[in-house]
């Protein structure tokens, strides 16, 4: 493990997701400890987007000067944690470093709202972004989707559903350590039982909360999709000591075999979510790479 990251491992609280409400509180406290980003010159607005007759989703818009495009951004948290406030440091940095308008989505959380609630919320946010592209100052053909961890999995599912249902066109997928496969059959998913922050048990609990008693169906687990052809090009980042590592690499390979352009970056010495340790040189490179990939994808 990268020595700069390893020094922080003893400081991480043990978490198994058996009590999502308690873990949300812990997650919020960890996010609050991250140094606040500089928002000078950036427009930040909150909106509420209707999902259906019974639901709506909160979104927060981060608009840098003259945005080159937009990304519908889904936060991490194992489908059960996270919100617009915990994602604020990352959404701000992404908007500033990439030059894209970031539409951060406060999707509904499991287990209170299992699949497909989060995906429906993301779909509503994507449709809203496309409809309001002019107001955001971006071209509707320059809209990407992306996210961390569970949010990356939802973003991948959103790209699949938009393809199948002829939804708003998506230019690019930005998937950071995405949670894609509920089957947990890969080597990393089976063997990483004591890795920092995310391990086999925590992944199993996360999927249980998200899926409930039903097996994965539809777009719940993107790795189960039989056909990946026709999807937007993608940047996929994986962490060496992360249960999601092998499914991330396998998904990238399957996209390539389906004719989808992919940039895959496997970060050595890192663990799931370790980019949050901003003092580490490798974390700084990870964040810069994510932003640079989005900037390239949305360029003319």
TrEMBL record:
The entry's keywords: Hydrolase
Database matches in InterPro entries: AB_hydrolase_3 (IPR013094), AB_hydrolase_fold (IPR029058), GDXG_lipolytic_enzyme (IPR050300)
Record carries keyword Hydrolase: yes
GO molecular function: hydrolase activity
Domain (Alpha/beta hydrolase fold-3): residue spans on this chain: 71-274
Protein name according to UniProt: Alpha/beta hydrolase
Species of provenance: Streptomyces boncukensis
């Amino acid at each position: 493990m990268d020595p700069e990251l390893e020094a922080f491992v003893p400081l991480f609280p043990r978490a198994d997701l058996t009590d999502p409400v308690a873990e949300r509180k812990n997650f919020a406290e960890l996010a609050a400890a991250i140094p606040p980003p500089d928002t000078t010159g950036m427009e930040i607005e909150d909106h509420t987007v209707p999902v259906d007759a019974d639901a709506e989703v909160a979104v927060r818009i981060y608009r840098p000067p003259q945005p080159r495009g937009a990304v519908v951004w889904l936060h991490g948290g194992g489908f059960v944690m996270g919100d617009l406030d915990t994602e604020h440091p990352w959404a701000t940095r992404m908007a500033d470093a990439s030059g894209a308008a970031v539409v951060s989505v406060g999707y509904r959380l499991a287990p209170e709202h299992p699949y497909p609630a989060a995906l429906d919320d993301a779909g509503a946010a994507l449709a809203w972004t496309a409809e309001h592209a002019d107001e955001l100052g971006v071209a509707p053909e320059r809209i990407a989707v992306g996210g961390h961890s569970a949010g990356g999995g939802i973003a991948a599912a959103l790209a699949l559903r938009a393809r199948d249902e002829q939804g708003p066109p998506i230019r690019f997928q930005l998937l950071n350590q995405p949670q894609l496969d509920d089957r947990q059959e890969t080597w990393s998913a089976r063997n990483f039982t004591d890795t920092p922050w995310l391990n086999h048990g925590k992944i199993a609990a996360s999927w249980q909360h998200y899926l409930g008693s039903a097996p994965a169906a539809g777009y719940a687990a993107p790795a189960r999709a039989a056909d990946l052809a026709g999807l937007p090009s993608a940047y996929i980042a994986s962490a060496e000591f992360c249960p999601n590592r092998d499914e991330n690499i396998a998904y990238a390979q399957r996209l390539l075999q389906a004719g989808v352009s992919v940039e895959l970056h496997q970060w050595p010495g890192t663990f799931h979510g370790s980019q949050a340790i901003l003092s580490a040189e490798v974390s700084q490179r990870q964040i810069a790479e994510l932003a640079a990939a989005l900037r390239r994808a949305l360029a003319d």
